[in-house]
Design goal:
- By secondary structure, this protein is α/β, with parallel strands linked by helices.
- Helix content is 39%, strand content 21%.
- The protein has nine helices and eleven strands.
- It has an eight-stranded parallel barrel, surrounded by seven helices. Strands 8-10-9 form a three-stranded antiparallel sheet, with no helix packed on it.
- Strand 3 (62-72), helix 4 and strand 4 form a beta-alpha-beta unit.
- The radius of gyration is 18 Å and the shape is globular.
- The N and C termini lie close together (6 Å).
- The model has no long low-confidence stretch (mean pLDDT 91).
């Protein structure tokens, strides 16, 4: 397994003045064991793709995946026609950056009026994911989906993910070790349930707290470095190892303070299992 983290987190650490530049961050973390980064498709607002690739490759750091958050008005009649060209551009960017994993993240733009509306949104998301997997084949890119933590989203619960994966045999799963906690599902159980469909992993730790800075579905917590909270990472790594998983585990931290230090401590923790 490779240890990764999100480029946006490193950019945030630079912006906060915690580390002087992305280059310095990559130098330090690369020496400590970082070998991959995850990209958000909006990274081009800060980085030229060619220059970023050069910075990464000179440090022997690769790109593990790219995710793309987009507006998704599931009620529009021509939604698939509108999305097709945009999706192709994102897949082309994935290919240019040398990653074989793409995670489209539909942002539902309108609230549900009823449970039937939620079901409609879920059906449209499923149909769209089928289109994305078809478009990705010429690029040899694997399309993955992760569950959202907010259960208002039509891909947040176990039954939601079961449905998406059963309806889309070419779609795979990104295990996010923190998101299911907000729906009272144990991450270890999720890893076991979806182990044969996991192609990417976000290592997010959870520290429950009544006054936590993250509040979703009535559950509050803090998101700190990997290994500091309640998630059973050794157990999850055992499950992944048992399937022969040889992809990336990407450190994800959802609080802004001390991002660089928390990433360093996360790498130190994960090196015990690499």
């Amino acid at each position: 397994m490779y240890i990764g983290t999100f480029l946006v987190q490193l950019d945030m650490a630079v912006k906060a003045g915690e580390i002087e530049s992305l280059e310095t961050a990559l130098d330090i973390l690369g020496q400590e064991g970082l070998s991959m980064v995850d990209l958000y498709s909006g990274f081009t607002a800060l980085h030229t793709p060619g220059e970023l690739l050069s910075q990464l490759s000179s440090r022997k750091i690769g790109v593990s995946s790219m995710y793309h958050l987009f507006k998704f008005d599931y009620r529009k009649e021509n939604i698939f026609k509108e999305m097709k060209e945009g999706t192709k551009k994102q897949l082309e960017l994935c290919a240019k950056m040398g990653t074989g994993i793409f995670m489209p993240v539909p942002e539902i733009t309108k609230p549900y009026a009823s449970e039937s509306e939620r079901d409609l949104a879920a059906r449209v998301v499923s149909e769209y994911m089928n289109d994305v997997t078809f478009l990705a084949k010429p690029y040899n890119i694997t399309v993955v989906v992760e569950n959202f933590s907010d259960n208002k989203c039509p891909f947040s619960t176990v039954s939601d993910i079961d449905r998406l994966l059963s309806e889309n045999p070419d779609l795979y799963y990104t295990l996010d070790t923190g998101n299911f906690w907000f729906n009272n599902v144990d991450a270890l159980a999720a890893a076991e349930r979806y182990k044969d469909r996991i192609r990417h992993v976000h290592f997010k730790d959870i520290t429950p707290s009544e006054s936590g800075s993250i509040l979703i579905n009535g559950r509050a917590c803090e998101s700190n470095e990997t290994g500091s909270g309640i998630i059973n990472f050794p157990g999850i790594i055992d499950i992944l190892s048992g399937t022969g998983y040889n992809g990336t585990v990407s450190i994800e931290i959802n609080t802004a303070a001390d991002l660089f230090k928390k990433t360093e401590r996360s790498i130190s923790f994960l090196k015990n299992f690499a």
